[in-house]
Amino acid sequence: MSDVQEFSAGLKKVRQRRILLWLTIAVYVPAMMISLQSAGGWNTVIKVFIVWLILLCVVVALAVVVRCPDCGNCFHTHGPTFFPVRRCVHCGLHVNADKKGDDRPDRE
Ligand SMILES: [Zn+2]
Description:
The protein has helices spanning 2-6, 8-26, 28-37, 42-65, 97-100, and strands spanning 77-78, 81-82. The chain is mainly alpha-helical and 108 residues long. Helix 2 (8-26) runs antiparallel to helix 4 and helix 3 (28-37) runs antiparallel to helix 4. The chain has 5 helices and 2 strands, in the order H-H-H-H-E-E-H. A hairpin with a 2-residue loop joins strand 1 and strand 2 (81-82). It has one domain. The structure holds zinc ion. Residues 68, 70-71, 73, 88, 90-91, 93 line the site of zinc ion (ZN). Zinc ion is lined by residues 68, 70-71, 73, 88, 90-91, 93. Keywords: Membrane, Transmembrane, Transmembrane helix. The chain crosses the membrane at residues 20-39, 45-66.
């Protein structure tokens, strides 16, 4: 358990980047609806879409490079594939292991 407490700062960083990713994805539909209602018409829609796309690329890149505090590998990335799952794709550390306890079978 004390092991997992040491990971707390690293896991907090992983959680923040995951929240940023899901918020960016969730904001897409409201942003498109608001821009469609705007006076600027399709020009505004295209501009909003391009800004959203750039923002998405940035937050995905941030989520891809975040490191697991236990094994040191990329938390969400195995080879070229991005898996935004709640466990480290290398060692299985849960994103909330510092709150719930480490439930990996090979750890105590
Ligand atoms: Zn790991």
